[in-house]
Structures are given as structure tokens and as C-alpha cells.
Amino acid sequence: MEKSVKVIDIFAGPGGLGEGFFSYEDDNGNFPFDGLISVEKDLHAHATLTLRAFYRLLIKNNLEIPEEYYQYADGKVDCPHTSATKELWEQANRETLQLEMGRDQKADIELFRSIEESCDDQSPRVLIGGPPCQAYSLVGRARNKGNKEYVPEKDHRHFLYKEYLSIMEIFSPDIFVMENVKGMLSSKINGGAVFDQIIKDLECCSAGYSLYSLKTGKKFIRGETNPKDFILCSEDYGVPQNRHRVIILGIKKKNGQDLDSIEPLRHSPKISVGDAIGDLPKLRSPLSSRGKRFNKDSLNAWKENVLTGINELINSGNIDDELVIKLKNNLRLLEQSDFDTRSVAQYHPSKSPTVFDEFVKDSPLSNVRLHESRPHMDSDLLRYFFCASFRDVYGRNARADDFPDYLAPDHKNWKSGKFVDRFKVQNFNSQSSTVTSHISKDGHYFIHSEAKQCRSLTVREAARIQSFPDSYQFMGKRTNQFHQVGNAVPPLLARQIAKVLLNLLNGGSE
């Protein structure tokens, strides 16, 4: 293909879906996908998008990443560029837009029409993006069900996909990719299925589109195709995470003709949590000032707090002998460890790199950033240590009824069943549970597998589980960074989708 493919990325988040496209390199060393515009409303996610666009421009122009880039990511300087790279930074800013779509539809349409008028009519176009999913998600719907004042028909988030349709009408992309939570399949408004209406709207938009499942390769036929065929399970495609999302691929009909099927995504070998993050340095968390045992933060004080608390737990006599043995063994490992808190980690490439390694562990530098634990209260340190040890022994996560009273959180409803899986260890030998934006609030669902570290996952570990490259810098404070990672599409999955699209645009061969 001589001309590059122009990509419009809306509801872009921190750029997970776009990264799979924009970083895709063909066999000739070319980057066939060009970012026309990436749109995101969140301030910090937009800053991440812009910085990543700048990074890609530096790479494509064979330029080294300047030290100012990292100082900017750390909030130490106002600009990530040198005088020699200022123009590329300005280009990155033109490629990304901070905008809340749907707030002023008329203004949105005028903006995108102006962008469309400046486009090259000869270049193929692809539209990607995932309208906000809170209104469709099972968790969100459960929360709204308890709100007597909530009226689904008045929740504008149910209809943000129409903004996606508006952009399709303007740009008439050759191919589109729409992503959302699988709760979209069962969400209802006015007694009707939201998904049925979305399908009808997508098929009839612009010149008309045929819809395809990337899992089966089959064209969607109303009444025959199971909507669940649109669900992609990330763990089947080399992502170390059980993340299941609806992803719809649409191809513009040309002269009334369309394809009966497309080549589906190919399954990849399973990648475990241990494969993803096991080579990162071992850390301890800083002691939180909210903890009862808090004193001067040091490695010795941290060890003393954990040792004292777990020994008190063991001496309480309310734990099975097998678990006591494991707790004692893990305490010995903790005592012998010399790890400490740090924000920069030494990078050790895998001896036999997998596709995941080659894509994710990409940093050309001798460090991996954003690998720093958040502070934990001493009580949570003990719970994390207990949970990791419990999983070592029983091969499952501890439920509320498994917790000794000594470690029970101070919740009135702790034994009610509402907190049955409040604490989850992400086992090194399997894929993680779905990384969600909730990780920005606390790490209870994302406990490190090694008891001696007794902490929740770092931003970099969560990013690796989402398959973000190590070179990816997330802007904002740690809470903002976690939120971005939890809301993203796994870039490695997106990269495989990009390859399918490029083959289609090339007539079936890359």
C-alpha cells in the first residue's frame, strides 16, 4: 500500500487501542497507520496521548528520546522537547484533542467536518474507539439499580455511541472498530435491547456497513449470528489478563458488494502474570501514616511491623497447621530480603523472548519507570501477606469466611457476603482478573503473588498486564495513572486487530 492509512481515534482514553495501530510496523519497516486525530475528554489521559504521539514521532524520525521527555513525565519541566524536536511536539499536539464529545453535538460536527475537509481523499480511513461504558457495565447497572432516581432513558451515556455514528457519517471510514464492555449485549432501554439498536445503526450508517466477528471471521447476519461472537477474550491472544470485551469490526459496502467472511484473529500461547511482571524488581510499599503501627518509614521498621503482626496472628491459634507453616516460611523469606522502595527498576530482557516480551518489554533504556508501590496501612500489609500465603496453600483466593477475626476489616457487613472476594491475589501461574479503573481507589483486588512483598500492584505491573509497552508514560498522579490503565484496551490485542485491517485494506495480503 503506497498511501498511509488515516486513523481517527475517538473516546481514546490513554491510547491503548490507538497504540496497537500507530506502533504497527510492517515487514518493510514502515508504519502504515497514521494518526489523523485522537480525541479524549480526560485531562490526564489526553496528556498521555499527546506525550505518546510525540514519542512515536521521535522513533519514526530515528531520534533519541531526550532527557527532557522523562523530566516532563515526572512533572519537573514544562516541555518534553529540545529546540531540535519542538516541531515534532507541536505536531503531536495537533494530532490529539481534549474534547468531551456529546456535550455540544453541533460544535463536534463542525469540528470534524473541518478536519475531514483537510484530509487526503485518496488515503484509506479507519475509525476506532470505544464510547464510555459505565451505562452498559454490569457493575454500573447494579449500582444504578439501587438509585431510585436513576432513569436509563435519561442517561446520555447510553447514547454516546451516536457520536461515533456522527463521525462515521462525516468521514465515511473504509473500516471501523468499536469496543465496549460485554454488558452492552444485555443492556436495555424502554424494554428493548440496546445492542440490537446499535447494530442496526452501524449497518445503516453512511454508505452502509457489514459487521464481522474478529473471533470467528463470520459476517453478522441478523437472527443467525450469536451476538456473543463479538466478544474477544484477551487471554486467548497473548494478553496476561482475563479481559472480555465486545469488539465490532465494520467494513464499508462498495457497489453493494461485501465479504462473506474475513480472516479471524489467531489464538496465541497463554501468557501468565508471572511471565508479564516476574522479572521486575521486588519492592516493599511505604508505610502509610494512617496505619496503627506507623513510625519512621524504613526497611527495618517495615519488616518489624509485618513480622510482629503475622507472628501475633500465628500465635492466635486460629489457623490451620499447613497455613501456619507457609506463613512462617514466607516470613523467613521476608526477613532475608533486602528490597526497598524505588521508582526506577533495572530491566532484564527475557532469555527466550515471546511476542509479548518483544512488544511490551521494549524500553531501550536500562530502566523501567512507574514501578513504585503505593503506601499501605500496616493492617493491609498483614492481609496481603495472609492472602498470598493462603493462595500458596489452597490454590484459591481467601474469602471473607477464611479471614481470622484478627485480620477482619472494620466493616459492619464484612460477613454478610457482600465482601466475599474483597481481596484477590493475582496468581503468577495464570492470567490476572480484569484490570479495572477501581485499581485507582485501592489495591485489594490486585495483590502481588509473592507474600514477602505484601503489596498491591504498581502502575507498571498493571500496565504490563494490560500489555502496554514499558516505554509508555502515563501522565498525572498515581491515581490518574491507574485509572487510565484500567480503562484502556490492551495494545497487544489492538496490534493484532490492526494487522487484520491492514490485510483487508491490501486486498487480503500485507
3D structure, described in words:
The protein has 510 residues and is α/β, with parallel strands linked by helices. The chain has a domain of 285 residues: Rossmann fold, CATH 3.40.50.150. It has 16 helices and twelve strands. The strands form three sheets. Strands 1, 2, 3, 4, 5, 8, 9 and 10 form an eight-stranded mixed sheet that branches. Strands 6-7 form a two-stranded antiparallel sheet. Helix 1 links the parallel strand 1 and strand 2. Helix 5 runs parallel beside helix 7 and helix 10 runs antiparallel to helix 11. The longest helix is centred in the first third of the chain and has 18 residues. It starts with a strand and ends in a 5-residue tail after the last helix. About 3% of the residues have low confidence.
Q: What's the CATH topology label of the domain at 5-272 and 489-505?
A: Rossmann fold
Low-confidence stretches: 137-142, 150-158
User: What is the distance, rounded to the nearest whole angstrom, between the alpha carbons of the first and last residues?
Assistant: 8 Å
Strand content: 5-15%
Radius of gyration over C-alpha positions, nearest whole angstrom: 24 Å
- Secondary structure: helix percent: 25-40%
Oligomer: single chain
- The average pLDDT value, as a whole number, equals 87
Secondary-structure element order, as H and E? Answer: EHEHHHEHEHHEEEHEEEHHHEHEHHHH
**What is the CATH H-level superfamily of the domain at 5-272 and 489-505?**
Vaccinia Virus protein VP39
- How many beta-strand segments? 12
Number of helices: 16
- Main sheet overview: 8 strands, mixed
General form: globular
Please identify, by name, the CATH architecture of the domain at 5-272 and 489-505.
3-Layer(aba) Sandwich
The helix-and-strand class reads alpha/beta
Give the CATH class of the domain at 5-272 and 489-505: Alpha Beta
